[in-house]
């Protein structure tokens, strides 16, 4: 009984569905009524009243349907009342069809036959347009068709009339069965749609929670990067100082191990930060025209010692092409590829070069390592997947090198492709670089200049005492005269160069520190900003030239190269600047090629 009651209960959405279909069906109903009236040829008063009543009721129901459609979702109780009003008006229409059938029976069998066609089609139309509300549908079917059956008996009380009446009743029964099936199908679809909506809502919530968790992880890495970089940066400087002291062979080996572990930690840490930066959309490409050959030479110079220390070799195929893209991101891509080659092909040859691909160029990094099985060649571009990781692979890393290559290449609009044969090696190609004949101003290469840091007065500013002390000791080990402060110095320091953190605490920045010292000294003291701020916006340093930027953790070699670059620039500065003591170039012990990799150029 409960199921039966549930079946006959009408919900607001069913009334809306009824009205949406009925608003059009009732216009058709008016046309059928007019044609049935004309077919009868009866213009008497009762026929005219029948026509007028049918047209008026049809228009009223049509208007009510239009109004209900506009109010859907606003008042469910009103919709329920509208459903009952529809049933009442439909009952009146059915009674008019009953009356019309009796009127047709007073004429001839031909007229009643025409009326039967009209009413039979209308009853079928009621199934199509009213099956969402079965009470209205059944009233339309049974009252009208029972009137038609009565009309046939009145016209012919004999066997023929009874047979016709019986077939009409059977027709009404068949339409009722059809209406019930369509109603069940409609309710089933509604239930399925609701179930899907619930599942989609739950999936959406789960997806949202996963996105929020991922964003929280990414924001944590990005926001905590400054604090995480500080100790790694300090350890790097301290190990360099320790190596320069008098150590026995065993202690020296321990320092080397610490330094190697620090290099590994720095690489892993930087990979995680790169992933978080890409996820947060903080890596924005900035295209510029640059010498591709010079960039490849710089990368080869940096990576050759690492590969050679493992017993391998790095071969660079020179190129003279200039291209236009973001050199920092491209350098990051190629550095990841070279690191991967060194990691997975130790003691083997590595090739770095450029190929022509139609009108474009492709940079290639190839090695003669163990290769990658075909089944894993697409998996290596997924985060945290490592070749052999499931079978006891020993290579260090988080499996972020190639995924970062794919992400950075997509940022630059480049294509990446991997070819590998087990036992023969691996080739990764980054294609889509467009060569250009344009040259930026001052693009001529600066010759290597002999220079030393000995005797240079450097002022160090950092609010972290450990970082500040480590920096002082490292600079003093290079022969520099060093002064230091935790914030903006109160008086002139006499510095030839500034090394400052960007975030100095107490709402002060390295920009303010540089401006204050230059004001005290009376000239544009060269400055090096060493920052732990992730994806530091270099536009903050605009107008502070000469200035360099290094990202923590910075290796001592990077720090030394950046300082020497600034010192060389200052040596050739305009004569209008305040003269300061400079290292004697004639007393230089060796040439230094300024090819350091730092965060501003890598």
The arrangement of helices and strands along the chain is HHHHHHHHEHEEHEEHEEEEHEEHEEHE
Shape: elongated
The helix content, as a percent range, equals 55-70%
Total beta-strand segments: 14
Summarize the structure.
The chain has helices at residues 2-8, 12-40, 45-70, 76-105, 109-130, 134-155, 159-244, 249-279, 292-309, 327-344, 401-411, 465-477, 510-521, 556-571, and strands spanning 288-291, 313-316, 322-325, 349-357, 360-367, 415-421, 425-433, 449-450, 457-461, 481-485, 497-500, 527-531, 547-551, 591-592. The protein has 602 residues and is of the alpha/beta class. It has three domains: 2-202; 283-433, Histidine kinase-like ATPase, C-terminal domain (Heat Shock Protein 90); 449-592, 3-Layer(aba) Sandwich (Rossmann fold), CATH 3.40.50.2300.
Overview of this structure, please?
There is one protein chain. By secondary structure, this protein is of the alpha/beta class. It has three domains: 201 residues; 151 residues, Heat Shock Protein 90; 144 residues, Rossmann fold, CATH 3.40.50. 57% of the residues lie in helices and 12% in strands. It is built from 14 helices and 14 strands. The strands form four sheets. The protein has a five-stranded mixed β-sheet. It has a five-stranded parallel β-sheet with strand order 10-9-11-12-13, sandwiched between helices. The protein has a two-stranded antiparallel sheet with strand order 1-3. A hairpin with a 3-residue loop joins strand 6 and strand 7. The two termini are 77 Å apart. The N terminus and C terminus are likely disordered.
């Amino acid at each position: 009984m409960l199921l039966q009651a549930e079946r006959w209960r009408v919900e607001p959405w069913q009334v809306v569905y009824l009205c949406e279909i009925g608003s059009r069906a009732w216009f058709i109903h008016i046309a059928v009524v007019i044609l049935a009236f004309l077919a009868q040829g009866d213009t008497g008063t009762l026929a005219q009243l029948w026509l007028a009543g049918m047209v008026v009721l049809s228009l009223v129901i049509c208007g009510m349907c239009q109004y209900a459609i506009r109010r859907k979702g606003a008042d469910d109780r009103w919709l329920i009342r509208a459903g009952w009003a529809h049933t009442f008006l439909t009952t009146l229409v059915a009674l008019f069809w009953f009356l019309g059938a009796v009127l047709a029976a007073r004429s001839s069998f031909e007229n009643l036959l025409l009326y039967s066609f009209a009413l039979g089609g209308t009853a079928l139309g009621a199934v199509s347009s009213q099956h969402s509300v079965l009470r209205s549908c059944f009233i339309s079917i049974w009252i009208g068709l029972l009137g038609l059956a009565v009309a046939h008996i009145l016209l012919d009380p004999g066997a023929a009339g009874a047979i016709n009446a019986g077939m009409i009743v059977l027709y009404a029964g068949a339409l009722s069965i059809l209406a019930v099936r369509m109603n069940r199908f409609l309710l089933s679809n509604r239930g399925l749609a609701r179930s899907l909506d619930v599942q989609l809502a739950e999936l959406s919530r789960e997806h949202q929670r996963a996105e929020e968790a991922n964003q929280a992880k990414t924001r944590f890495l990005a926001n905590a990067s400054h604090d995480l970089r500080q100790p790694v940066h300090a350890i790097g400087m301290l190990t360099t100082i320790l190596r320069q002291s008098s150590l026995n062979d065993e202690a020296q080996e321990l320092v080397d191990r610490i330094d190697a572990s620090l290099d590994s930690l720095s690489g892993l840490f930087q990979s995680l930060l790169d992933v978080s930066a890409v996820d947060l959309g903080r890596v924005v490409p900035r295209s510029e025209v640059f010498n591709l050959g010079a960039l490849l030479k710089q990368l080869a110079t940096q990576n050759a010692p690492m590969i050679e220390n493992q017993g391998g070799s790095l071969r660079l195929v020179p190129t003279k092409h200039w291209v236009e893209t973001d050199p920092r991101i491209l350098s990051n891509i190629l550095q990841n590829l070279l690191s991967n080659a060194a990691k997975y092909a130790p003691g083997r040859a590595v090739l770095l070069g450029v190929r022509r691909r139609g009108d474009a160029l492709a940079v290639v990094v190839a090695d003669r390592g163990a290769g990658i099985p075909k089944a894993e060649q697409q998996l290596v571009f997924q985060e945290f997947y490592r070749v052999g990781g499931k079978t006891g692979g020993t290579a260090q890393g988080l499996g972020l090198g190639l995924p970062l290559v794919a992400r950075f290449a997509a940022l630059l609009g480049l294509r990446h492709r991997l070819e590998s044969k087990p036992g023969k090696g691996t080739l990764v190609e980054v294609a889509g670089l467009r060569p250009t004949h344009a040259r930026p101003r001052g693009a001529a290469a600066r010759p290597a200049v002999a220079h030393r840091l000995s005797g240079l007065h450097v002022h160090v500013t950092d609010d972290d005492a450990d970082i500040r002390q480590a920096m002082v000791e490292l600079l003093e080990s290079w022969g520099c005269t060093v002064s230091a402060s935790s914030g903006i110095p109160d008086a002139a320091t006499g510095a030839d160069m500034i090394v400052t953190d960007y975030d100095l605490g107490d709402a002060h920045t390295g920009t303010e520190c540089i401006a204050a010292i230059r004001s005290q000294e009376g000239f544009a003291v060269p400055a090096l900003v060493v920052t732990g701020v992730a994806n530091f916006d270099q536009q903050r340093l605009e107008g502070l030239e000469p200035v360099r930027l290094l990202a923590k953790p910075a290796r001592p070699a990077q720090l030394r190269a950046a300082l020497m670059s600034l010192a060389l620039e200052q040596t050739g500065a305009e004569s209008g600047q305040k003269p300061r003591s400079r290292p004697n170039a004639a007393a230089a012990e060796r040439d230094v090629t300024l090819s350091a990799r730092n965060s501003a150029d890598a």
